[in-house]
Design a protein that fits this description.
The complex is a heterodimer. By secondary structure, chain A is an alpha+beta fold. Helix content of chain A is about 30%, strand content about 25%. The chains are: A alpha+beta, B alpha+beta.
Chain lengths: ~775, ~160
């Protein structure tokens, strides 16, 4: 391979270092207005009246709109369309918008918001997801009785029998926190009305242009071909710029259609934290049965996720949890229940990991605790129960169609981190500063799995001067998709990657290929690019057969040439081949479409082949804890990930470093403080993400076991990178301090005192202290 | 609101404006001068995305009023280099894969320039200290440090 499996410079780097790449907030159009949203001051209330008259009279205010002005339906959502673009009758969380304004300046729009008078009648609120599921709790949505946003069941074997056959039974409860994506670019969109106001063109920081288009079509009453979504450069997303962007774009579109002028909406960081969805906090109860020898016999798992006010992706997020909740371990008897509960908290949805960081924190902490009970080394317990070739998962799937590389990634991480020696060395330390080392591993289903239809497309267009366009339905969010797809197109065409120009995702020029989620870009989109480029290549080969006096099978290609394998002197340049094809009237533009291999799912018992392939990873954390302050310094993270094949080893490393950083934040720093529905962490001074000084040495180990389904064997890397970091750190801290913290994040208070003082603080403040 | 005269040099050229007292430097650059490379993320000096150089010192342009820059010389990412002659830091960020989403990149580059202007051979620890005011959510900072170190050590590919 000439281009694939080698480092290539990012195709989007030049514009970014020059500061010339245009992000949503950088766009300007003639006559452009600025939109702003009025949020509800109540977490749950009925809207009695909205008076916009004074606001509308303010000079420079061009439109003031409410839910009554939504041209189509006022709700949207992938699974259950209950999220409101603007609240119509009832507000359900403090991020609900009730009115929008378009004015000639953002300051004027803000001024107009203050003039809107809204009368509310407060309704009973519910903020605890467990209480929300209890009888008598106020119900948020009429069509979700009992506030159940999702419920997934998994039954394998007979769990009580498994416990009866166990020598040791351990029950533990773990908790994870509300976490913010904290993309550095806040949400931004500009909507430009088409001439005649029949349709619109939407620009902005939109992770999933097709999801946005669908939502806008529904809410604006426009046909899909009247809503054109063109993605701007994305200042990070990590799953976070989906529903919140559909709402922002729809509001801007309403104002643009009303005024006939372009409308721009940009969130401040405070608005972003108030309205934007976050990662689900989970409460996880694990009961595990094991034989004296350490063989897992049974696991009973009960999980409640806080879905917040709207359904969004909760059913899918919690589905991945139910599939993977037992971890990469053989367990003959399993019963898992995962609930998503509606509350009046900020709604939760997709965030890198998608239901895995929570369960991996619980199950990997549990494995270490179980090892402690058994008097075994944690690694030994994992080796005894870990997946190997032919293992059967909790969903009844036999892992035999890909390389089950759990032991390989564990071995490599263990060796490179010197885990075994350090694990012994750090036992029973004394003194103020104590070190610890912890290990976590995971298996992860690639792409969407049985969650839904899984297919995507790409277009490769060779121009007659030898330059090439690549278009794709999946989108660059900063992860490096443009570079990966360009490399694949170059490899298939046998050309230098410099010839390829990757076009921004535009819903008007490529079919809907689903969302850029579930770490599916390389494995799904990469296949689509490969198919499209290979079709063009076949046309080029066919066009030069006469000239080279050879059959297609006899030809080879690469380095901008096509030649006869047996006689490389008979060759033709890429440009000349294009000329030949063009002179013969051949089409050098092709669409590639890739459908995922078959998966299956039985919802009633949670059984089936959930994903068509899986990746395996292992991370090891080494920490030093100051036992007098609770401060945890991470010294090193060793991260071994089987990616199938690294299309670009450098961008794979970039994903690993970035994922580990987010995992470290999840472990030690990050927690959105939310008290009675109010987000108290309003900006980066109150919501701490890892800075450069928080980062330890990271050793990235790329393991390659090519997958039969992936392009060149490539699978997945985006999400696995962060899902193991927190439990690895938690186990390292537990070794250092001799006390396990079962709740994230492991901030100073939890490490030092075993509990957080934060919630008490809010209660005290309310009491007037 | 009353307007005040403002004279300053931006990226080597002299400018005169009449500005309101509450106009922030970031808004002057982005809205009035169309220098959109300077990004705004938090609006309160926590993230460093809006970092520019003011009389050679790195400042968060969201915390500086435009009139405070009167008589100053400002350098933004647009003044760092050009497509024809990239600044070594820009080259290094490309070569070392220090750019992912790119939103923090202009601020990172300006903080790195300030660091190297004042400490041409920083250690990795000094690079960390110099960039401590700039947040990045994509890269884990590893390749950003690599890139700055490469410039400091004169290890750029041509």
């Amino acid at each position: 391979m000439d281009t694939v499996n080698k480092p290539a410079r990012r195709v989007d780097a030049l514009g970014k270092v020059l500061g010339e790449s245009k992000y949503g907030a950088d766009l300007k159009f003639d006559g452009m207005l600025y939109g702003k949203v009025l949020y509800t001051p109540y977490s749950h209330a009925r809207i009695l009246s909205i008076d916009t008259r004074s606001a509308a009279k303010l000079p420079g205010v061009e439109a003031v709109l409410t839910a009554a002005d939504v041209p189509g339906l006022h709700t949207f959502g992938t699974v259950v369309p209950n999220q409101q673009v603007l609240a119509k009758e009832v507000v359900r969380y403090l991020g609900d918008g009730v009115a929008i304004v378009a004015a000639t300046s953002p300051a004027l729009a803000e001024k107009a918001l203050a003039l809107i008078k809204v009368e509310y009648k407060e309704l009973a609120t519910i903020f605890d997801p467990e209480e929300a599921l209890a009888e008598g709790a106020p119900v948020l949505h009429d069509d979700s009785p009992g506030n159940i946003a999702a419920h997934h069941v998994l039954e394998k074997g007979e769990v009580e029998k498994g416990f009866a056959a166990s020598d040791i039974i351990l029950e533990r409860e773990y908790k994870t926190q509300l976490v913010e994506h904290a993309y550095i670019e806040p949400e931004a969109a500009v909507v430009v009305p088409d001439p005649g106001r029949k349709g619109i063109t939407v620009y902005g920081s939109i992770q999933n242009p097709f999801s946005c288009r669908k939502a806008l079509s529904r809410m604006l009453g426009l046909k899909l071909n009247e809503v054109r979504v063109i993605q701007s450069f994305m200042g990070g997303s990590f799953g976070g710029k989906d529903e919140v962007m559909s709402a922002q774009c729809a509001r801007a579109a309403m104002l643009a259609l009303k005024t006939g002028r372009p409308v721009k909406m940009v969130n401040t960081r405070e608005e972003s934290l108030r309205e934007g969805y976050k990662r689900h906090p989970y409460k996880l109860k694990y009961k595990v049965g094991v034989t004296r020898e350490g063989k897992l016999m049974a696991m009973k798992i009960y999980i409640i996720a806080d879905a917040g006010a709207y359904t969004a992706q909760t059913p899918f997020v919690t589905w991945r949890s139910v599939v993977q909740a037992t971890g990469p371990y053989e367990v003959p008897h399993v019963r898992t229940d995962v609930y998503g509960a509606h509350t009046n908290n900020c709604y939760t949805s997709a965030f890198r990991g998608f239901g895995s960081p929570q369960i991996i924190f619980a199950q990997e902490s549990l494995m270490d605790e179980l090892a402690g009970e058994l008097g075994m080394e944690p690694l030994e317990l994992r080796r005894l129960n870990g997946y190997h070739q032919g293992s059967v998962t909790a969903t009844g799937q036999t892992l035999d169609s890909h390389q089950v590389s759990l032991s390989e990634v564990v071995d490599k991480a263990v060796e490179r981190s010197d885990y075994l020696r350090k694990f012994k060395e750090y036992a029973n330390q004394k003194g103020r500063f104590r070190k610890g080392i912890g290990l976590a591993c995971s298996f992860r289903g690639c792409s969407l799995g049985a969650e839904g239809v899984d297919a995507t497309g790409a277009m490769v267009s060779v121009q007659y001067d030898g330059s090439v366009y690549v278009f794709a339905g999946l989108a660059e969010n900063g992860q490096g998709l443009q570079t990966i797809f360009s490399q694949i197109a170059a490899e298939e065409l046998g050309i230098n990657v410099e010839r390829v120009r990757f076009m921004e995702t535009d819903t008007a020029n490529i079919p809907d290929g689903g969302p850029t989620v579930a770490s599916r870009s390389t494995i799904m989109g990469g296949n689509a690019v490969r198919i499209a480029a290979a079709k063009v290549r076949e046309t080029l080969l066919g066009a030069v057969l006469g000239k080279l006096k050879a059959s297609t099978e006899e030809l080879a290609w690469g380095k901008d040439r096509i030649w006869v394998k047996e006689d490389p002197s008979r060759s033709i340049s890429f440009e000349d081949a294009i000329n030949e094809a063009c002179s013969q009237g051949e089409l050098l533009t092709e669409l590639g479409w890739y459908k995922a291999p078959k998966v299956s799912w039985d919802d009633s018992h949670g059984q089936g082949n959930a994903y068509f392939t899986y990746v395996y990873g292992c991370q090891i954390a080494e920490v030093e804890v100051d036992t007098e302050t609770g401060y945890t310094r991470v010294l090193k993270i060793t991260a071994a990930h089987d990616v199938g094949r690294a299309i670009n080893p450098e961008t794979v490393r970039g994903q690993i470093y970035g994922g580990v950083a987010q995992g470290l934040g999840y472990a030690l720093l990050e927690e959105v403080q939310q008290h009675e529905g109010e987000i108290k962490s309003k900006n980066f001074d109150e919501y701490l993400i890892p800075g450069i000084k928080d980062m330890p040495e990271i050793e990235a180990i790329i393991v390659e076991n090519p997958d039969s389904y992936g392009p060149y064997g490539a699978k997945t890397i985006g999400e696995p990178t962060l899902e193991m970091t927190a439990p690895a750190i938690a186990s390292a801290v537990a070794q250092a301090t001799g006390r396990r913290v079962r709740q994230l994040p492991l901030d100073l208070e939890r490490v030092l005192l075993g509990r957080s003082l934060q919630q008490d603080r809010y209660k005290r403040r309310e009491g007037g202290c | 609101m009353a307007k005040y005269p403002l004279d300053l040099v931006v990226n080597g050229s002299k400018y005169h404006f009449e500005v309101e007292a509450d106009l922030r430097l970031v808004d002057l650059l982005r809205e009035q001068m169309k220098l959109l490379g300077t990004k705004e993320s938090c609006g309160k000096g926590e993230c460093g995305a809006c970092t520019v150089l003011m009389d050679g010192k790195s400042v968060a342009s969201c915390l500086v009023l435009a009139i405070q820059a009167n008589g100053s010389e400002i350098v933004t990412v647009e003044g760092l280099g050009g497509e024809e002659a990239l600044h070594p830091l820009q080259q290094a960020f490309i070569q070392h894969g220090a750019v992912q989403c790119g939103f923090c990149t202009p601020g990172m580059l300006m903080s790195a320039k300030y660091l190297l202007d004042n400490n041409p051979r920083p250690t990795r620890e000094e690079i960390r200290a110099g960039l401590a005011g700039n947040l990045c959510r994509c890269t884990g900072y590893v390749k950003i440090i690599d890139a700055i170190q490469a410039v400091a050590e004169g290890r750029l590919e041509q």
